[in-house]
Amino acid sequence: MFLGECIIKNIVLGSWMDEGSYLRDNWNRLDGFIVATSILDMALADINIPGLKVIKLLRTLRPLRVISKNKGMRLIVFSLFDSIGPLGNVVMVVICAWGMFAIFAINIYAGKMFYCDVGTYQYGTKYECNKQGGSWSRYD
Questions:
Q1: Would you say the C-alpha torsion 31, 32, 33, 36 has a positive or negative sign?
Q2: How far apart, in whole angstroms, are the C-alpha atoms of residue 4 and residue 16?
Q3: Distance between CA atoms of 111 and 107, rounded to whole angstroms?
Q4: How far apart are CA 11 and CA 118, in angstroms?
């Protein structure tokens, strides 16, 4: 049925030459891609090649056909795509905050996870410990 729909739309709208043709609309491109991969999947169903399993995974795109037909769902998808830019700004702010806390934690905990086996609390750095002939070890 989907193949018939694609063929009829190609005949009525034209393939790609005119302004309102079938392949000029992104939703129709998605529909055509889904139909083409479904046909390819059915044609290669009896062949058991591991690389062709990717084509079977493209079956998960079939529900996207519902989005292309439903205007409310289309609005939701477009809204999600429009929100990607502002979400990028929020992600950058969060990464900066995490970076500040990471630098703070490194400064607070620098060398605190290790000890010197010679005079455990006397030497606080690896350099001082090695200078006294000790071994700089990590706490269990």
A1: positive
A2: 18
A3: 9
A4: 86
* Cα(16)–Cα(32) distance, integer angstroms: 13
Q: 14-70, pLDDT tens digit by residue? A: 777 777 787 777 777 877 888 887 788 778 777 777 777 777 777 677 677 677 677
Contact, 137 vs 114, CB < 8 A? Answer: yes
Q: How far is CA 21 from the centre of its chain?
A: 32
Contact status, residue 68 vs residue 74, Cβ threshold 8 Å: yes
d(CA 44, CA 60): 17
CB atoms within 10 A of CB 83: 11
30 closest CA partner among 71, 53, 61: 61
**Spatial distance between the Cα atoms of 42 and 31, rounded to a whole number of angstroms:** 17
| pTM higher than 0.70 | no
